[in-house]
Design brief:
Pdz3 Domain, 2-enoyl-CoA Hydratase, Chain A, domain 1
């Protein structure tokens, strides 16, 4: 970066940081939240409480360093470090994002990205195709499962005048590009002696927020939601419509495990489909410099759902916790699993001229009962160690070890006691199996995806998906093959004979599921896992005593 470019970056940031507290536009759970009105950022016209705070000091220091320091300076890195240090005294969710980080975050929330439409695994410098998206660019170009992409080159006519081909860029990066631009791929295909050249026109790939939906039994449906993006309510309603209209679903198991959140408004829209009543408060936000905002049910739900169980775990955050909190506070359903992440802060995002952005916490959100579920962040250096802390405390495996940081009592609609700080505590606790923390299990499970790919390539299947899910069996001896595969690829020896029987069963179940995904789809993967999942099993059992569990203790 030139001195002029670097100075421009400083000029962008300094007045912006001095005035940022006066601006508006909303984000929730670390994710961009669409503002209800257009927000224009005009630096020149925005004031600050103290007009002399640091003005000119950063530029002056850097100019002195550039002019006088004994060695050559990486001023670009210095500016990045200075920017990052400004956030040290703020909460963990107020962050500076580079232009690349902004692009990735926006793609995730938009529910789409520009690419060629494949799922893959990376082996050394080769991309191995695991799945080709139906009707996507790769499918139209004739790419197949098992193809190895060994090189990718942007076609000359797609480059801007004077632009030099990036020979150093990673293979994965080269698959991305502008919509409708072209990339030439060099493919190694099993049983084909020569390298195959394919020209692929990149396109926009839409990714559903719903991983799968299907019926767990005759009257209970299952929906697995991975995020709250711009398309989530559409994806959710499509799944709900199929379950109710085509399978006569009456009860719902709504899986929000590993769901890190997203748009607040999408969470509210989903809640409006779970509640029949009108004008019930779902969530509200309060901040020093933003007005209080409350969200209520509309009473315009499309489908009638009887019993609801929401599944959560330690990685269910922000918008997931908004859904779980509202369902719990109104006793609309049961929360099953382990304590959620504990994120109750609202951010606003401000895009900068160079493509980077500032994401700043401006408010807190509260559940209908008035709970703030944000966990403590006084020790920021330990904030991201929450899983290790919960394992060490014994909380993962013993409900009696769950520690509530805020013991203030709140009450659900039926008078049950619930608590605030530290996340949503489930109504039905399901411990994590401590055996799955075993190091050898962790090592072997990390090789399952690659091993499953190799297995599928070598073993054609002659049964349909239902037969595979219900009756396909793996012999325990295959774990020896897995251990050999792991040793060859990771240089770690695992003695299968020393594994606990329960660990062996878990490995066989997960491998069965991985094979189901490779042979068929995500649906078979989740069906196999859920058949053995204690959290799903508890959700089905809880329906039998549903009324008892949602009443006052």
């Amino acid at each position: 970066m030139s001195k002029e470019e670097n100075q421009n970056k400083i000029n962008i940031w300094l007045p912006f940081l001095l005035s940022i507290m006066m601006l508006g536009g909303m984000v929730v759970g670390g994710k961009l939240q669409p503002s209800t009105q257009e927000t224009k950022i005009v630096f020149e016209n925005v004031g600050t409480d103290n007009k002399n705070i640091g003005q000119g000091r950063v530029e002056e220091l850097i100019r002195y360093m550039q002019a006088k320091y004994v060695d050559t300076l990486n001023t670009d890195q210095m500016v990045e470090t200075a920017i990052t240090s400004l956030f040290n005294d703020l909460d963990p969710h107020s962050v500076y994002m580079s232009s690349d980080q902004v692009k990735k975050a926006n793609e995730s929330l938009e529910g789409s990205f520009v690419g060629i439409g494949i799922e893959y695994l990376l082996q050394n410098d080769t991309i191995v195709i695991l799945k080709v998206f139906e009707d996507g660019p790769a499918a139209k170009a004739g790419l197949k499962f098992g193809d190895r992409i060994v090189d990718a080159k942007n076609l000359r006519e797609d480059r801007k005048q004077g632009e030099i081909e990036d020979e150093e860029g990673s293979l994965i990066k080269r698959l991305r590009g502008e919509n409708r631009s072209q990339v030439e791929l060099s493919i190694v295909r099993p049983n084909e002696p020569n390298i195959i050249k394919k020209e692929v026109t990149r396109g926009r790939i839409v990714v559903s927020s719903v991983d799968v939906h299907y019926m767990l039994n005759d009257d209970t449906g299952y929906i697995k939601l991975n995020k709250f993006s711009a398309n989530t309510i559409t994806d959710f309603m499509d799944a709900l419509s199929d379950l109710v209209d085509n399978h006569q679903m009456k009860n719902l198991v709504f899986d929000l495990r590993q769901n890190g959140g997203g748009y607040l408004h999408e969470a509210v829209k989903i809640l409006n489909q779970l509640f029949q009543e009108k004008d019930q408060k779902l969530v509200y936000t309060i901040g020093k410099n933003v007005k209080k905002e409350e969200f209520f049910t509309t009473g315009r739900n499309v489908f009638e759902i009887n019993k609801i169980c929401v599944l959560i775990d330690e990685n269910s955050a922000s918008a997931s916790e908004i859904v779980a909190g509202a369902v719990q506070d109104w006793d609309r359903g049961l929360i099953i699993g382990r304590r959620s992440y504990g994120k109750g802060l609202v951010q606003e995002q401000y895009d900068l001229k160079d493509g980077s952005a500032l994401r700043l916490t401006v408010a807190r959100y509260y559940t209908p009962a008035g709970r703030l579920i944000q966990r403590d962040y006084a020790e920021k250096d330990k904030y991201d160690q929450y899983i290790e802390d919960r394992i060490e405390s014994g909380e993962f495996t013993n409900n009696d070890q769950v520690t509530i940081s805020d013991t203030s009592k709140f009450y659900t609609a039926n008078g049950r006691e619930v608590y605030a700080g530290g996340g949503i505590t489930p109504d039905v606790y399901v411990p994590y199996d401590s055996l799955l923390l075993d190091k050898d299990y962790q090592r072997l499970s990390g090789s399952l995806t690659r091993f499953a790919f190799q297995y599928v390539e070598k073993n054609p299947l002659e049964i349909d998906e239902n037969e595979f899910v219900e009756n396909f069996k793996l012999e325990e001896s295959i774990l020896n093959e897995l251990a050999i595969f792991h040793e060859q690829n990771n240089e770690e020896l695992v003695d299968v004979t020393l594994l606990n029987d329960k660990i062996k069963r878990e490995l066989l179940t997960t491998l069965h599921a991985r094979l189901g995904k490779q042979y068929f789809s995500d649906l078979e993967y989740y069906k196999i896992l859920n058949n053995a999942d204690p959290v799903v099993r508890e959700a089905l059992n809880a329906q039998k005593i549903y009324k008892q569990l949602t009443e006052k203790n």
